[in-house]
Amino acid sequence: MDKQTDVLMNLSVLYRSTQKYYDRMLFSMKLTYAQLPILIMIYEREGISMHDIAQSGVYDKGTISKTVKHLEQNGFITIMTSEKDKRNKELYTTDYAKQQMSKVYEIRRDWWQHLIQNIDPSTFDEFLASYEIMASNARAYAESQQENLVFFEWKKVSVSAYPDKMATVLSIAGCNFCCPSCTKSDLVYIPENRKAIADTEIRQYLEKRAGIIEAVCIEGAEPLMHPHLKEFLKYVKDLHYMVKINTNGSFPSFLQELIEEKLVDYVSLSLKSGPRSYAKTIGMENFDTSLISRTLEILKESAIDYDVTIHLIRQFHTTSVLKSMMNWISHVKHLILVPFNDYSSAIQKDLCSIQPKKLGSIIELCQPYCDQLEVRE
Question: Domains of the chain (ranges plus CATH)?
């Protein structure tokens, strides 16, 4: 992993090591690292209120109340009614706390000096400035209401993504499956330093190209695991685009909701295996295949266009498995077979590839179970 990818791990190590050090050094005082910042705030701003503490740091009211109660019970602070407003409580440190604070500051200074040893002062100043910006960004983002979808890949123009339509294709990250043969692992195990595509850029493009581009295709990883998808699709439909969703079929209720509200026009269901071997194929011990069955029912009963796509992998799709898959889907409208070809090594190709002769027998096996059969290379 590169330095940017490592940043969260390093922050985690720093936090846990700091917590361990402070908890050890403060144990005899009946203090913990988690309580220390609030005690210091009270000591340096005598008469501060719990509301003020909440405004100063990323603390919820429950955490502040619990910490204040602990500090009061252990003799560090007193709680007094404000003379200016009888409804407010003011927090003050006790004489006992005042006698302990010099030791607290010494503990803090020693840890700080240990952390910054062997760091060039100018380099450290630059780090502090960047870290302050990161903390400010983190606070603002944590407090904001995140309602926009985040896309990480974008094919602006495609003539193959949506049948007989010129489309733009947007890809979302995140998936509830861990398929060992996943061809979109970069969207499943997405690194922290990967930048998302700006929401404003996408919207400007869609608004400008409305009437030229005919359809918007949403792919994944897995789009239906994102609850904000509906709001984005409403926006897209207001611009009069056709909408296609690629899904693994494990969110039938949400899919039903989108179909009922006329927010999707075409669904491509990626079918992984037969019911008995489904869990293994998606990298799990157990999986409720009734979710896939329900998705199939929804698609068959709806008036929208759909297809069932199978990415053929030799070690997974034996003749017996394919037969169980065909019995399961039972006369779907449109079946698409895609021989697996995303090889990272010669060994993988040897294990996964479907030979032309075998492909011919697969086509013959599947043909009776669908109205239309398509093979895509």
Answer: 3-143 (1.10.10.10), 151-375 (3.20.20.70)
